[in-house]
Structure formats: structure tokens, C-alpha cells
Amino acid sequence: MAARTSSTTGRGAQSAAVPQRFGLAERLVDDDWRDAMRALDGDPPKLRTTVTQEHPKSILTFNQSPDIGFDRSINAYRGCEHGCVYCYARPSHAFLDLSPGLDFETQLFAKPNAAQLLRATLARPRYVPRPIAMGTNTDPYQPIEKTYRITRSLLELCLETRHPVTITTKSDRVLQDIDILQEMAAHDLVAVSLSVTSLDPVLSGRLEPRASSPAKRMQALAQLVSAGIPAHCAVAPVIPAITDCFMEEIIATAASHGVQSVGWIMLRLPHEVSPLFREWLDVHFPERAGKVMGIVQSVRGGRDNDPAFYSRFRPSGVWADLFRARFRLACRKAGISRHKFTLDCSRFRPPSLDGQLSLL
Fold it and tell me: Would residue 356 count as lying in a domain?
């Protein structure tokens, strides 16, 4: 992919190119018109976000991956307006013959009947409860949640049925549901993870242009802790030579807010994410691109990405060992020990399909 010299304003991805996958016909996207408009009239108009309502037949997705800590998840939305350029979920848009690049963050899909579908699933006689992971593919608190409130409707149902939930987000919008989360926490039904990539708002604006600022995410963690809601800070992803320098400060800041659970995740570049990230480097950090990708490949067995179970989440090599050592030392200095939240599945009570709880 040829290097670009100018960025797409307000978005993470720099283009909408669609690689040929899943047996779909190749679709070429010509970005020359954008460059021509810049030459003639300055930057082209900002891309607008569109939302299409989707009505799936099921909402709970089960997985048997041996290296993932949950076996079921819910994604209330497809695509994510946060626009994190490194997002490992971007390739999912290719299933719709849409670009994992700009389409992923501008052409979104909402599932307004999600709570209704979940109610039907939880009411099945043979359903066995285990924590539902929310935010594993696209963020449940991305900007359109303010309008659709699908995530809130799901949490209301989970509180009603006493079903445990884990939430992963990059948005302080999670605080809009602090009333529900606080009540769920009182029954050991919820844990919330906020990922913080850096503490530099300018860098964050380039990496994840429509996510909450790092400061807002840190304040959200503080408010969750204050409300008695189990809160986890994920230093994620760690991007070598770009964001790794913030690791120690992120951990120290989280600890100062009372957070007692932290973790880190190395950058992953599956499928179309790799060329999109390389393109982003060429625009924003051309002088550092070679170093960044050199380190990435050194921890991924010489490739941009290692898709194998277990090793995909456990990078190897000297650089990976260095990041682990730094993380452990930072945790010791901050007074944070290994801590896991245990959610309670024993309180679950199946709903009836008419919205009333069963007496049995």
C-alpha cells in the first residue's frame, strides 16, 4: 500500500480499501478524489456517520476459544465510531462487503431488539448462566449508545434476571448507567474494564479519534471505584515506540484512583488491520514506522500478526519480556497485586417471555 502524506480528518483509518476475502469480488476504492479536493479546496467534507437498524435472530454469541476468558458475548452494534485504528474487530466489516477501514467507523449497525432476543435466550429451560462479555468486538458505549440505549436495555434485563456481565469500553459514557451498575455490583453481577492507551490527548486523538479522552477515562475509573463497582484498567493496546512509554504512568494514575486491577495487551494486527495500521504510521509517524513494525514483528514470530491460540495473546522475545518486566515493576511500585473479580451466577432467575419473572 502506497504511503499517504495527509490524514483523514476526525477518523482513525486513512482509507476505505477492501482486500479480497471471503470469496467476495474485489472492490477498489479510489481516494484520488480526496487528494484532488485538498489540492483545490483544502480538506474535503468530513465523513458522516450513518446508522442502519439491524434485526438479527439471535444476540448471544458463544465461542469455544481456549485462550479467551469468556464463552459468550453480546455486541449491540456492528462497527464502531470510536475509530481506533488498531482495532482488531475491523475485519468483521468485511463480512458485510464493507471496508474494515473507513466504513467500519462510519457505516454502523444497531440492534434495537437485542434485549428482547436476550430475554428469549435466558428463558430457555436448558440455559445455564455464565458471565456475558459486552464490548468484546465493538464498544457498547460508543457515541450512538446515547441515542439507542441498547446497552442500557441489556443491563436492565441482566439486573432483572440477576445475570452477571463484564463490560469493556473506551468511553466515560459508561457512567450514564452507574445507577444500574451500582445495583448490579451489590449482587456481584458486574465488572467494568476501561482501556487506556496513552495519557496524551493529542496522540489519543490520532489513534482513537472519537473515543473519550484519556483523562475522562481515568475519571470514569475513579467514579466507578467510588461507587463500589469493580473496575479494571487495561493498558491496551501497547504499541511499541508509540504508546509503551505511558505504561508506568497509566498504572500509577489508575492506582491513585483506587483501581486494584490492571493488565496489559500487546498490539494485535489481524488481517486488514495490519495494512490500515501501516498506512496510519506512514501518515502520522513516518520516521518511526520501521522501528514500530520491527518490534511488532519481533514479538510475533517475524510476522505482523500471530493468529495462533495462546501465543496471539502472549507475545514472545526480548521486547515482550521487557514490557512484562516493566509492567510487573510498575504494579509493585503502585501497590497493585494480581486481582481477579468473581461474579456470582447462583442468583440467576430466568425471565418469562411476557416480561414477568418466573415464580419458580
Answer: no
Measured CA to CA, the distance from residue 304 to residue 86 in angstroms comes to 12
Distance CA 192, CA 231 (A): 5
Q: Report CA-CA distances (Å) from 261 to 13, 237, 238, 337.
A: 31, 16, 17, 8
Cα maximum dimension of the chain:
70
pTM for the complete prediction? Answer: 0.88
CB-CB contact of 78 with 6 (8 Å): no
CA-wise closest residue to 94 among 25, 162, 161, 18: 18
Q: Please, which residues bridge with residue 165 across strands? A: 132, 190
In a domain, 15, yes or no: no
Domain count, the chain: 1
Instruction: Tell me whether residue 150 is in a domain.
Output: yes
CA distances from 357 to 95, 181, 245, 352 (A): 38, 20, 51, 6
Task: Note whether residue 63 is domain-resident.
Answer: yes
Q: Domain of residue 185: give its range.
A: 37-334
Instruction: Compute the CA torsion angle 144, 145, 148, 149 (nearest 10 deg).
Output: -170
Q: Are 208 and 169 in contact (CB under 8 A)?
A: no
Q: What is the DSSP letter of 286?
A: T
User: Over 90: is that where the pLDDT of 320 sits?
Assistant: yes
pLDDT at residue 359 above 80?
Answer: no
CATH number assigned to the domain comprising residue 112 = 3.20.20.70
Segment 238-263, tens digit of pLDDT: 999 999 999 999 999 999 999 999 99
